[in-house]
Every structure is written in C-alpha cells, then in structure tokens.
C-alpha cells in the first residue's frame, strides 16, 4: 500500500473536528455493523489525538542477509511429505476489494485482462482461480479459496466464480466482505459529503481490515471445521502469490504463528515497506516509508542497508489468529496510515478528504516469535499502474498451463509511460491496439507525449520516444531505441 505522509493536517491540532457522533450516526444510518463502528472509532480516536507512529532509524535494526532463511534453502532441506501434509491444511485468502481507480477502472481490478492463454483472454481472477484449481487437481489438495471483496466488487466476483464450472467448494465460504468507513472532510473534520455519488463518501479501512472482517465473518470457525490449520493471505493483483507446498511446509516447520514473505530490494523498491526488528525487544515489525522521520529517509531508502521489502504475502496459523482476535474483540491495535485524497479519486478538483487505514503486515508486531522468509521476485508481481500492466502483457512473460506467470529472471525494464496519455486504461488500450511492443531487448522504456503503436514494434536498449507536442505514430515493425524510432533506410 502506498500512503501519503499525513503531515500537519492529519492531527486534531490543525484540523477542525466534528466529533465521532456524526460518524457513528452516519454508519448506523447505513446499517454498518457494531464491529465496523468500533474499528473506525479506534482509527478516528488515534487520528484525532494526533497519533502518528514514527519509527526512527535509531530504534530499529534492519534484517540482514543470513539472518532469515530463503525459500530455496527450505526447498533443498524440506521433507516433501511433510510439506504436502501442511499444504493439505492450507487455505487461500485473496484481498479483492480494489476498483483500480488509479487506472480509471470502474469495476474490480481483478476483472482487468492481463494476457491470453491458448486464445482465451485471462483476467486476474481467471488466473487466480486457474492456479488454485490446477493445484487441487495436480497435488490432490482441497485448497479452499476465499476472496475478501468490497461491496463494490462482491457481485462481479461471485458472478465469475459461479460461471466457472471447474470451481467447486463447500463448507468454506467463497467470500467475506470487508468493512467500509466514512471519508473525512479534510477542511471541516466532518463526514465527507458528495451528493453526486453517495457511494464515494465511503472507503475501505486499508487491508489491515482483513483481520476484523475475518473475525466478524466467522471464517476461522469454518476453516477449522474443514481441517484448515494455515491461512495464506495476499493481494489479488499480485499474480506471483501462487500456491506453494514448499512455503506451506516451511511455515509449518517454523512453528511461528505469523510469517511474512520478503524479497531483496532493487532501486525501484526503495520505498517499499520494510520488515525490521525493534532494537529493544527484538520483535519483528513493519515500517512504512510514511512512518520514517524526514531526517532518516536517506538511510531508510538505502536498499543496500535495508535489503528486504514486504511483499504483503502473509502466512498465519488459524488457531493463533483466532486467539489473538478473541483477546482484542476482533479489533487489532494496528498503527494508522493517514491518506490524503479527493472525494472522487478520478477528479482531482473535488473536495479533499482523509482516509484512515491500517496495513495487514503491521500485525507481525502482535505475534511473539513471528518470522519472515526470503522469496525471489517470482512471488511479487503486483500491478498498481499501467506501467506494471505494460510489463505483464509483454513478451517477457509466459502463462503456463498451471497459470503461473513465468519469466527468465524477473528483472524487468524500468517503464515510464506518459501519465497524461497512458495512465487511464482506456487511453492505454487505445494506444496499443495490437498489444504492447516487445521489451525482450529493452533495458528501460520511456514514452513522453502522445504516441500510438502499430503491430510488431520492438523496444531495445534504453528506448525513448520524445514528446513532439502532438499525437505521433510508431509504424508496424519498427524498432525503438535510445534515439527513438530507428530509420528504415541504409546509412
């Protein structure tokens, strides 16, 4: 999750406060549950009191190489039968509440086409379900699949699941529905109002809400009744978070109640959330960049100093999570993240609002003896922007019959498409009518300005197209390199 720094306007000292009663009344009028109101009250109170978790560099120590085990090491030393037994008792939970508004989508991001497989257009949800069904068949495991939807994604997601004749699941629900909370008017501190579309007055409380949603839905009871001991939680837009008996076995073998998959940073991951150790207690904790004091940013962004980032792939023992949630009445004390947005995310001219969120990975600090494991980049393939989608749809990937996104080394070109013309998915698709160009020989891709692409275009080296101030066209079969479009005449 990316979070803006909350700044001075995030605290009660500089933002007028309307009082929680107005929010409670609005939530009750909209039939919000008691637990969702309790959770928002916790976040609201923390925000009003000016709570902002700051984690200075002097209070933590980075995770160092050799300190944690890697999935490669576990694969070499793990007993296969033991790992498969753990996998038979593992369930999947996919966070699927996002609409992809940052790309101009109006429906679930998981319904966005990614690439074709044997002539079929495959969306995120098709690939996720394909991964699970393939594992069920090939490895003879039950592998329950649950989506955490929002009220905006539930209907479309269930429609797809019901239409897939291969998907069958009893005793474990197909979905749980995450909570919603009121957006806060940044100017007044009152519940945000948007008469043009009242739905936009509401937002999810971040993916940390997964825990209270799990509790309220009684999902853990259903999982235990079905013999499930381990729960793997990941984002639906990360197609690298696929079923893994090795990781299930490694988690079971560790004896830990909570495990986070981390991966080595590259320069492009500098701002990723860090799993670090509290210097005093030795307890693992999540530190987001928004929680770093400005004076420590240089150290925090040094990817050679902080070698690992949080992939947001989480493993948790069902019994341990159930015990912890029972102790806290379903609302975990997670640090708040204050996001500044506009009430209509697609229109920057609408009223400014504040959204209070929490991060799922922050729960690692609540589990004594929690651990993490190093995974390679094949486990982290998120799509947050059309730049990411460009790579995902490119010739760098092959979608296998097990619905795994395969690449040679998972080190991809740095792609920067002009946001004025490529940020919106409709604009993006209009400019690549024949599919995205080849990037097999590209080190980086930079497209400035308004460009349209013919078929069979290839990028190479540090490819760059300049902004000519008017719509421009890359002809069929062109090669694009550091000097732009390569001329077709002999020198």
Could you explain the architecture of this structure?
By secondary structure, the chain is of the alpha/beta class. The chain is 25% helix and 24% strand. The chain has 14 helices and 26 strands. The chain has helices at residues 20-29, 34-48, 71-77, 80-88, 124-139, 154-163, 210-217, 219-225, 245-254, 297-300, 318-327, 386-392, 419-422, 425-431; strands at residues 60-62, 90-96, 113-117, 120-123, 145-149, 175-177, 181-182, 184-185, 202-203, 230-235, 258-264, 274-278, 284-287, 308-317, 337-342, 352-357, 371-374, 398-399, 405-406, 414-417, 438-447, 451-453, 458-465, 472-474, 479-481, 484-485. The strands form 8 sheets. The chain has a 7-stranded mixed sheet with strand order 6-5-2-10-14-11-17, sandwiched between helices. The protein has a 5-stranded mixed sheet with strand order 20-21-23-25-26. β12 (274-278) and β13 form a beta hairpin. α1 (20-29) runs antiparallel to α2. The longest helix is centred in the N-terminal third of the chain and has 16 residues, at 124-139. The radius of gyration is 23 Å and the shape is globular. The N and C termini lie far apart (50 Å).
Determine the structural class based on helices, strands and strand pairing.
Answer: alpha/beta
Gross morphology is globular
Low-confidence region ranges: 1-16
Mean pLDDT value: 92
Walk across the major sheet and give the strand order: 6-5-2-10-14-11-17
The percent range for helix content is 25-40%
Rg on CA atoms, Å:
23 Å
SS summary, helix count: 14
């Amino acid at each position: 999750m990316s979070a803006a720094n909350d700044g001075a306007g995030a605290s009660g000292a500089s933002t007028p406060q309307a009082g929680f009663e107005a929010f409670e009344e609005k939530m009750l009028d909209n039939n919000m549950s008691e637990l969702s109101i309790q959770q928002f009250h916790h976040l609201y109170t923390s925000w009003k009191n000016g709570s902002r978790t700051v984690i200075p560099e002097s209070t933590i120590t980075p995770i160092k190489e050799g300190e944690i085990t890697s999935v490669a090491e576990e694969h070499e030393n793990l007993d296969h039968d033991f790992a498969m037994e753990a996998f038979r008792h593992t369930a999947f939970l996919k966070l699927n509440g996002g609409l992809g508004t940052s790309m101009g989508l109006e429906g679930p991001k998981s319904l966005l086409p990614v690439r074709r497989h044997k002539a079929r257009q495959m969306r995120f949800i098709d690939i996720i379900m394909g991964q699970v069904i393939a594992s069920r068949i090939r490895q003879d495991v039950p592998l329950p699949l649950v989506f955490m939807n929002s009220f905006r994604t539930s209907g479309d997601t269930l429609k797809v699941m019901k239409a897939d004749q291969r998907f069958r699941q009893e005793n474990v629900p197909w979905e749980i529905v995450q909570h919603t909370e009121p957006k806060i008017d940044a100017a007044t501190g009152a519940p945000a109002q948007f008469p043009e579309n009242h739905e936009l007055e509401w937002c999810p409380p971040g993916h940390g809400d997964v825990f209270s949603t799990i509790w309220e839905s009684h999902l853990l009871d259903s999982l235990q009744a079905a013999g499930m001991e381990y729960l793997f939680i990941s984002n639906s837009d990360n197609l690298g978070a696929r079923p893994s008996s090795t990781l299930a076995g490694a988690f079971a073998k560790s004896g830990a109640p909570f495990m986070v998959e981390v991966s080595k940073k590259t320069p492009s991951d500098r701002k990723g959330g860090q799993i670090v150790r509290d210097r005093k207690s030795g307890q693992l904790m999540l530190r987001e960049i928004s929680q770093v004091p400005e004076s420590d940013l240089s150290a925090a962004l040094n990817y050679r100093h902080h070698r690992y980032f949080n992939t947001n792939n989480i493993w948790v023992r069902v019994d341990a999570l159930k015990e912890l949630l029972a102790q806290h009445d379903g609302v975990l004390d997670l640090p708040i993240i204050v996001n500044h947005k506009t009430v209509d995310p697609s229109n920057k001219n609408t009223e400014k609002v504040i959204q209070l969120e929490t991060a799922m990975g922050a729960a690692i600090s609540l589990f004594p003896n929690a651990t993490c494991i190093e995974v390679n980049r094949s486990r982290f393939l998120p799509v947050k922007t059309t730049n990411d989608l460009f790579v995902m749809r490119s010739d760098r990937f092959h979608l296998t019959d097990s619905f795994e996104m395969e690449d040679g080394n998972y080190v991809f070109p740095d792609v920067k498409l002009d946001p004025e013309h490529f940020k919106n998915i409709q604009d993006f698709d209009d400019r690549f009518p024949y599919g995205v160009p080849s990037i097999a020989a590209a080190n980086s891709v930079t497209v400035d300005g308004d460009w349209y692409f013919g078929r069979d275009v290839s990028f190479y080296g540090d490819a760059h197209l300049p902004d000519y101030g008017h719509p421009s066209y890359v002809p069929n079969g062109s090669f694009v390199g550091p000097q732009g479009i390569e001329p077709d005449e002999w020198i």
